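> @MW can you paste both from yesterday?
MW: sure, first one:
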Amino acid sequence: MHGPAQMPSAPFQAETEAGRCVLRFNGRLDTSTAAAGWDEAHRAAQGAAKAGTPLTLDAHGVTELDSGGAALLVSLAREASEAEWREPEAATPRAALDRFRKAIPPAPPPPKPKPFRPLTAIGAATLDRLRGFGGRMTFLGETVLASLRLVPRPWRLRWAEVLRHLDEAGTRAFPLCILLGTLIGVILAFQSSVPMRQFGAEIFIPQLVGISLTRELGPLLASIILAGRTGSAYAAELGTMRVNEEVDALKIMGLDPVAWLVVPRILASTLVMPALTMVMNVTGIIGMMIVMAALGFPPVAVLNQLEQWLSLQDLAGGLGKAAIFGLAIGYIGCQSGLSAGRGPRAVGDAATGAVVGGIVALVVLDGIFAILFFRLGW
């Protein structure tokens, strides 16, 4: 029977020579022998460094060297503050040691933190905003060009995709528009009746609610619904296609992603907004009529007031605003989706950016239309 396996002894001898601490290595210095003497050799090197004694690593007697032995020698040399090398005499250990030094260079010092410069930070943020604005303008130009190329060849447009998005953005949003429109009409009528009652002018509530809905609240509320439902859906769908590299696959196949994916969605959102606005207007007026009936005014009186004060110009202006709102929402949703990053949060960030950007664009456009209508005398 064989006895228990013997652990390799330490691969060096520690000696003192002319005021120096000498760690002398001899024979075979491989992984097993290096592991056996690793801690002891480092303790000897650390002791010499604390005592201020120069350290000498003598590898003259090494006959065989592998990566484990080379790691021991290199780590001892790095740990000692002042180390003198005595290279191995054999060519093979010296070559192995040289290869190990080149393969594992010393770690670079950590970079110093850059001082905070407010002007530099402001400039960097401004440049980032300008790059983002440039990217949005580039996407706008690509969308316009793709749309113009489809005008003389309308059969190249994916009409089935347009109908699908009309259904998703319009038909499926009708129940929500009906609910919100009715509630808005009821709320406006009740809130208007409080001050109107003080002057005996409750009969003018239909004028207030009707004009507010057709000119302002109907298009704005319908567009907010479209931004929350459809704008985020566009961004999430296109963002997922970008993360899955489906957009890149379309480019490789020679297909224009803007004409293939963006134009049908923008066209659908533009066409569906007037319909959603009409649903919001009609249901809001119905909700107002319910309140007026509760206040003792018959439907005929309400309709007479609406016919007297509402004009086709008010309705056309609101529907025109709604179409522009739908165009902006579709554009922002598609742009957010196609500019999404590649990470796991890219789709969520794209959907959030589409909703926030869409609502901000709606408010800005609504303010522009308010100034325009005022200057035109509408």
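MW: second:
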Amino acid sequence: MLKVENITKYYGDFLAVDNLSFEVKEGEIFGLLGVNGSGKTTTFRMIMGLLDPSAGKVTLDGKEIDYSVTDKIGFLTEERSLLLKMTVFEQCKFYGTLKGMSNEKIEERLDHLLEKFNIKEYKNKLIKELSKGNQQKIQFITAIINEPKLLILDEPFSGLDPFNVKYFEDEIKEMAKNGSIIIFSSHRMEHIEQFCKKLTILLNGRSVLSGDLKKIKRDYRKKNIFIDGDIDVSKNEKIDGVIEVTNGEEHYVVKIKDDSIVEKVFKEISKNKINKFVVEAATLNEIFVSKVGESYEEQA
């Protein structure tokens, strides 16, 4: 288990991370979210032992993280950090050696992953000769070549087309199934909703929302009603508790303040021909924007 306990980080007088705590068990994928400058990168660096907290501690299986456990950690940075004049094999051998792997094990693992990601013909190509998408695949391979116990993924799908995203998704899920502890950060909230059962949202280094994703969505009272049919927008907008009515390409979306408004909306639209009426929880993106916006206002 990874335990982050009350970690705080100052850079001089600047407070970058403020008393942050969370736990991630084996086989869990945990979402760490925040706007740019929220403290995510500093948190990642403290988790990996690259920075010492000003207060608090980080432990992996009960042991504080230091160089004796870094071989068990993998990290995919948001910025591409490949050495363009190396071949794919040389690059992966370099990273594998840093993680204490034998040459034989590095090559065995590399061949397996290159075949898995359908790029085995690139083994001896220079990194600079690869497309951006394939460079991202290689960067991902360098992060997981050591089969890490703890894997940190910062914007892992950046620059990937839908087919290559699927390769990454399958591998991430398989690693979690095999017991890896995974921390996942992305500005694409649909990816967080797909992977993560628990999350923390940071703003100015402080957690403004944390916990089980299902509970967070349940506790966020606002809902969306998706309606396919003929509705009078102006009449629905006047219903007490309706926040907004929008006309999308495929359906109307009625945003309501809580479940108690559903019956009122249904009563109004049932006067017309309706093909679809579906009530859904707010998306994580809506919750994120709302919660971060509230926190900005509180600090203003």
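> thanks! The chain has ten helices and 14 strands.
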